[in-house]
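Tokens for chain A. Residues wanted.
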């Protein structure tokens, strides 16, 4: 999970579209981040946004 402080491994995560697919977001590496189920729901509930680079994911409120 790419959420700060979460150590869940990739096999326990789902792909999260940074720009939502329904809003025209692409399914590409620079628009996806891996999140465990808990943080995936948490991010959607709080409408957080992320910036994805080739090396990092930064979350904003």
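Reply:
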């Amino acid at each position: 999970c790419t959420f700060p402080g979460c150590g869940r491994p990739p096999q326990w995560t789902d792909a999260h579209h940074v720009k939502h697919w329904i809003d025209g977001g692409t399914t590409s590496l620079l628009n996806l981040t891996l999140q465990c189920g808990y943080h995936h729901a948490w991010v959607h509930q709080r409408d957080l946004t992320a910036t994805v680079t080739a090396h990092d994911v930064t979350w904003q409120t």
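The two ends are 18 Å apart (CA to CA). The chain has one domain: 10-60.
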